[in-house]
Amino acid sequence: MTTKEAIAAGKVRMEKAVDDFRKELATLRTGRANASILDAIRVDYHGTPMPVNQLGTVTVPEATLLVISPWDPSVVPLIDKAIRTSDLGLNPTNDGKVVRVPMPAPTEERRKEIVKHLHKALENHRTAVRNIRRDVKEAIDKLEKDKKISQDEQQRALDEMEKISHAETKKIEDLSASKEKEILELK
Asked: Of 37, 50, 91, 181, which one's alpha carbon is 20 to 30 angstroms from that of 58?
């Protein structure tokens, strides 16, 4: 392995961490209806936990309403129950054919809980980026120790990895800041 390969592999892993953070942000509730909020909910369908979006069509007819139209009407009560028992604080209704999920504006207390969860996710992803940086540093140090690269090349590679990790961490922090602003925005 060369320093370029180690840095490229580290950059790819860091970008995956940023994408994972983006996906996690999409599941946080802000008061506006968003179909991806249901991505984490699993429905026990014939003994198999399945995501809601694989059991039917999820639509957003208004800014504060999600409508789930299952392909199999017998799954309506299961979807209803799965959403009720999730920690999203949603209260769905169903008419036997579709499940309607009104999205109430979160209370001030709930917004603070969501922001706490956001900060925890932010810290987890920052840590992931730091761990990737550490792994790449160890690989580069090993190359220098095995005399495959010079100390100058080692230092250049470590400096480049540091720049990349700062850039990826900044992306995560910027995403977090804009999501926090969206959560705390009063409707």
From this structure: 181
Give the ranges where 27-107 is alpha helix by DSSP (H).
76-85
Alpha carbons 172 and 179: distance in angstroms, whole number = 11
State the pLDDT at residue 76. 92
Superfamily of domain 3-26+107-184: Ribosome-recycling factor (1.10.132.20)
Buried b (16+ CB within 10 A) or exposed e, 44-79: ebeeeebebeebbebeeeeeeebbbebeeeebbebb
Q: Could you report the per-residue pLDDT of 104-138, keeping only the tens digit for each?
A: 777 888 888 888 989 999 999 999 999 999 999 99
Model pLDDT for residues 54-96, shown as the tens digit of each residue: 899 999 888 788 999 999 889 999 999 999 888 777 889 999 8
Q: What angle do CA 112, 114, 115 make, to 5 degrees?
A: 65
What does CATH list as the number for 35-102? Answer: 3.30.1360.40
